[in-house]
Design a protein that fits this description.
- The complex is a heterodimer of chains A (126) and B (468).
- With 126 residues, chain A is an all-alpha fold.
- Chain A has five helices and no strands.
- The longest helix of chain A is centred in the middle third of the chain and has 12 residues.
- Chain A is elongated, with a radius of gyration of 22 Å.
- Chain B is of the alpha/beta class and 468 residues long.
- Chain B has eleven helices and 17 strands.
- Chain B has a six-stranded mixed sheet. A six-stranded mixed sheet of chain B has the order 10-9-8-7-16-17. Chain B has a five-stranded mixed beta barrel with strand order 2-3-4-6-5.
- In chain B, strand 3 and strand 4 form a beta hairpin.
- In chain B, helix 1 runs antiparallel to helix 5 and helix 9 packs across helix 10.
- Chain B is globular, with a radius of gyration of 25 Å.
- Classes of the chains: A mainly alpha (126), B alpha/beta (468).
- Chains A and B meet through helix 3 of A and helix 2 of B.
- Chain A: Pfam families: DNA_pol_delta_4.
- Chain A: GO terms for molecular function: DNA-directed DNA polymerase activity.
- Chain A: This is DNA polymerase delta 4, accessory subunit.
Amino acid sequence: MSRRAMEQPRRITDSFPRRRRRGPGRPPGRLKNKKDKDKDKDEVQLKVRDCPRAPSQPPPDPALMEMLRRFDLSWEYGPCTGITRLQRWERAQELGLSPPGLIRDALLEHRDNPDVTYSLWHEYEL
Amino acid sequence: MFSEQAAATAQGLLAPPSAEPPTFPRVAVSGYSDCSQPFQLGERSFARQYAHIYAVRLAGMRPGLERRARSRWGNDVVLRRLSELQEGEKCCVVGTLFKSMQLQPSILQEISEEHNLVPQPPLPKYIQPSDELILEDELQRIKLEGAIDVQRLVTGTIVAVYGCEQDNGRFLVEDHCFADLPPPLPWSGPSSDRYVLLASGLGLGSVSGEALLSTQLLVDVVTGQLGAEGEQSCAAHITRVILAGNLLSQNTQSRDTINKAKYLTKKTQAASVEAVKMLDEILLQLCTSVPVDVMPGEFDPTNYTLPQQPLHRCMLPLASAYATLRLVTNPYQASLDGVRFLGTSGQNISDIFKYSSMDDYLEILEWTLLVGHISPTAPDTLGCYPFYKSDPFILTECPHVYFCGNAPHFQSKLLQGKEGQRVLLLTVPDFSATQTACLVNLHDLSCQPITFSSFGADSEDGDMELEH
């Protein structure tokens, strides 16, 4: 049942809708939108220095940043490097350490701001 | 099992063929559910340190250990953190053990130029009388001495110690306890005899082909092509085969080709390619007849760190066509006919063997169950994925069958716990060395070895023996 048996100009893939290629070097298989993959990834990447800030959000006030800093530095909830603050909050919740709910609300509100979502030391690799 | 029923019908082999050859339908598979989801990693990120897994391990096991401490030393025992210790006060501390060993291979020592040392050769055991135990909790650490066996324990164990701090800064231990057996699972095993065959260390791709005959004998017995009607009807009661790791032999891992010049090694294939083809053919024969679970081991083509992910099905094109082939993780947990199996391919036990004075694989296996953790030495001396959310190696429920593969001998023990736990501890021997597999009866948790030895070079009468 090899494809060589049907040596005609028409291909099986012709029945699928054609999409615009993203670039000249890209193989035809990878036509999925790359941005969707990044949104699904919840993990911190190794070099996250140039995350674009959402322009419509107002910058969070310094009292909030101080509260988040204190959340990072409190030892009860475990190490803070290498994971996002939300992941650390959820882990503390599951272990029954009852982290304050205010922090979670603040983290979800300012989801697009990398200074809020990532920990104090995220710019340092590992 | 086999011997009683098989001997009666042995003369059937010498009788003339009957008009209707008898068929023995294999016992139908009724409950199977795979419980290894915690060991399956989806997307892996290594941009994390291992502090998270230790923190989660301590936080996860602390409540259970505090309960055990209260039940053992009284309800009014004082539980303290290391930062709250007062000198001379008798209290209980829960923490992680760290054993500082002089002989432990350290990459920093190896690359340090001032020492000019040749890296030390691998030793069978790295213990020494001068090893020390240190207890760590979230913030501090303290050296332990007293009624605690330094040689026996390994790094990464969560322990509760009872004693007091002395004026030299060390903690004098009067008594200690571990998490003990996890709570029991309800028993809903089958009402008639059902067997599961466990084998490990098939060692395909090795230089000597002696084990190949034994492997073929194993396949023939399971598929019912060996023996008279008695043995065939017994083999029909085997509901599953679990291959616990090291399907390929260590010879396939040789990396001589890296040191040789490129023109010499251009046309050579990796030894594992041929070995995987052999594995595919063997699995094909097994899968046509019985469900097979294949766990990867130390020398198999999958990732090195625990938990090892299942072998990819593209490597086994012939056998993957059958739905009876299940490629599973190492460690593996599943519920077969209501009986919970949990086991590894042996890397955790052999790693503890290297860093502890315990010599018996069954004793180490029992100890990991009593400590409540499958592999305490990960990630210190055994490679482990940097988990951050939870430690999947913590034992939360007591399995009914707890096995480890690639052990030097076959050993089994039925352990009874105080809360009604019944566990069959089983060390599955290395098949390429011992030609022995294990048969576990799910009905009453009994176990027997089955050996497929063929005639050796120095035996006079050249008989093939099937001992059980």
